[in-house]
């Protein structure tokens, strides 16, 4: 069910589309009236065909005017006009139902802010003056036709003299026709647009056809990255084409045309997103083999914006324990069922045929690619593990035997977390920020579950009982492990002591083993925190530290660690109080304000905006070229600067420019001020403290 606030926002879009359609009809009706009057006067089939052509042109014009007005246009308009939206209204209109906690928190904030803030009117204004002129011209034309009846003569055609600009275009302006040819793999048809600013799929070939009111001698397009495109003069206008891979800004430079050559036009590139994978079965990443289970059923769903390609299931079988672990891998190509953009993959694994035996781990992961050229986007699911439960030790062996038999499986899980982290680091350049953070958070969740299970060996309780993946069988196994210490020890504790919530008494592991387990848990905790924040490089050392500690627990029944402390070099008494600094070096001084000096163009731009003046855009552009920004931040900033240059009195443009510039400004460091000179009274007080007479 659609939320009321979303319905209200979509209502603004519908109102804007209706107004745009009405304005387009008001523009087309004068010409249609003139041609219809001519048809009525002459009865010519040629004029009737012209009337039908005008009707078709009206329909095409209305469609082109309505095409840009989609939800993306709505989000851009609302983000620009509602500062409280934090440029995140797309979370209300495009975020999937199953979103992360941060997305849901921001959605709740947006709902509360939009209920309080007045929503802007996005409907375009009626161009009454130009419409009146068009209708007046139509009335004059109809009067002329009535005064001089139609006798089958041809209508006069306005000739374009040599050296003049295109007919019907005012001097100092130009008309543009952009043809967009998306890459063949997208399956999208080529389209035309009459605006110099368009949205186009990534990798599209874009062709410009420009016609000027005053014929120029040379025309080129200057892009904000420093490249240029020289247009060639042909019969239909000035033509040039280019393949567009990323969003960009460009200027039209026409020598002798008298146009505004500093105005920036924006090309918004729609990136080809990587396929999205949804896992339907299994429901959790770590699964234990149930009794009499001979098969493992897997179910995945994948969807892509243009089309899915090959899907591959990676199957890894880990056998052995300690350092004798053998991993066998195989891959299976999955066909799937469904359409080109959304498919469902189902696979049933025969455990006996795979050689799955007691103490083994079966790990699967799905990889799905799309049809992007030249390199496809590939998405990989999380790793899902099917584990054969280890046998519980006999009652007389004590709990340490249980720990030794179950830990090899956990050891492989920690190794898998390291593998997943290193794989995600390698894939980071090809992922967008939201997908990267989502997958990093998933690895962090796996690290958390592993840490909680290791914590059970030290008697720790689960920190999130409502979300833990364990079940009643796991708790029963843990309780059975506690009882395996021996009935005699339990009787003594029940008679003479109380062990509730005492972590040290939760197991019978020796002290050295407990220290190693605590070290592993601390490393896992640190790794989990870095993974949750998306800092994978910082998480890897903690993951390896946890792996090393677990490895030592597995290989030794009792470990003795040497005492280690701070080992400082011996002091040389002969150098004391001599001032000899041989072998010593001063620390590097801290350069205060270096970041501020480096960002001087940003600071000067902010000061100009704050004072109401026009900032110097060239220095800002050079700074942005030297400091690449993520996403389209630089393009949006330069576009706002261009809007302010063309409309210096626009308060909204200035505020939008400042809002986009603010995140780039450096943080000011605390400045040290010189102590002011004391006055006469303070000087007398100081002399009194020193015992001197006034």
Automatic annotation (TrEMBL):
Signal sequence residues: none
Listed Basic and acidic residues bias regions: 464-480
InterPro entries to which the protein is assigned, alphabetical: CHP02302_TM
Transmembrane feature ranges: 21-39, 45-62, 131-150
Domain of life assignment: Bacteria
This protein's UniProt keywords: Membrane, Transmembrane, Transmembrane helix
Residue ranges, annotated region (Disordered): 460-489
Segments forming a coiled coil: none
Descriptive protein name: DUF4175 domain-containing protein
Organism listed in the record: Hydrocarboniphaga effusa AP103
